[in-house]
Design a protein that fits this description.
single chain, mainly alpha, 4 helices
Length: 113
């Protein structure tokens, strides 16, 4: 809801950028995370909707970063190893920031950095 309200409140302001931080769970393997996956897929769709109407938008569907934060602090080494076996590895901060710069220069509504 918050993203939609932000879209409505800013759509006529001539923004240079509208960047949504989504999750790869909305695109790949949201098993066990259906609500979370659906919410993030909505952010991706909102970016496409804005682009369709000529408005700026990027939805960046991130995986988890190497530096643990509130969302990933609970992951154990076993969890990280399980995800790595599935091809999901933590993103080093410097690489993530580089991908953010590259994504914002791209002309795509949805990217999976």
């Amino acid at each position: 809801d918050a993203a939609w309200h932000l879209h409505e409140l800013t759509r006529d302001l001539g923004l240079a950028a509208f960047v949504l931080f989504s999750s790869a769970a909305g695109t790949i393997d949201g098993a066990g995370q259906s609500g979370y996956a659906a919410a993030n897929a909505f952010l991706d769709a909102l970016a496409a909707h804005r682009r369709h109407h000529g408005l700026p938008a990027h939805s960046l569907a991130w995986g988890f970063w190497e530096q643990r934060t509130g969302l990933t602090a609970h992951l154990s080494d076993t969890d990280v190893a399980r995800m790595a076996r599935a091809g999901v590895r933590p993103l080093p901060t410097a690489r993530g920031l580089g991908l953010l710069d590259a994504a914002l220069a791209a002309d795509e509504a949805l990217l999976l950095p």
